[in-house]
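Record type: monomer structure entry
Structure origin: computed from sequence
Chain ID: A
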Amino acid sequence: MKKVLAVLMALVMAFAFAACSAKPADDAASTDAPAAADAKVIRLSTTTSVNDSGLLPYLLPTFEKETGYKVEVQSAGTGAAIQKAIDGNADVILVHAKASEEEFIAGGYGVERLPFMYNYFVVVGPKDDPAGIKGSADAATAFGKIKESESKFVSRGDESGTHKAELKIWGEGNEPNAENDKWYISAGQGMGACLTMASEQQAYCLTDKATFLSMKDELNLDIVLEEGEDMKNTYSLIAVNPEKIDGVNTEGAQAFIDWMLGDEASALIAKYGEEEYGVALFKLLEK
């Protein structure tokens, strides 16, 4: 009897030892699984205009199907989009504010600025153009007429690329102040929300042309000034620097950049908008 009990005890201890030995392997597998999954996820931090215009929803299904990557898009104003990368929440950024992009790279957060496409900012406003800015020589002249007539103007007010372009057009020291200039509305919102607000209040607004055209049917606004030399709007790709920021999916970021700069994406971008709006919404920079 004692021998039988001893054998049974030995078997129980053997099974227990085997189970304990197997557990670390299972734990290792569960730890490695998310890492393997994350390697196929690319975190893109970008400006609202490439999202609100429909460009990214148009491009990404093709990229994801061909590469097997999944792109997680976070869209905000350029300032906020860059900050997400600095905070370690992005692998690559697609933005449109040259000075901010250069500052990002100078701080060691970005690898290389790669400008690749552009469109134009336009000034939109009420159909009757109360400030009389149609035919102005440039946006700065148009803004001067808006300020002089104290016609309503909706500003992004969010440190986005569009907001920074607007401030540059007003000119340093000449920017309106929402507290003192009641006609000037600092919304602190994305492009789509600002266009809706401008339509509701019959105000002027600086916007990228692509987003306006994608929303045109919902708005009671017209383009009153477009394609002035001071309204060119250039977009750049920048990979986040893994030497500065931990956890960057470097391979995924480079795969996205290579595809976006390649022939297939270029052909898709070049024709985006033609069928629906009769004009391409973005143009490619010469390589």
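Annotation 1: Residues 195 and 212 are 8 Å apart (CA to CA).
Annotation 2: Confidence is low (pLDDT under 50) at residues 1-37.
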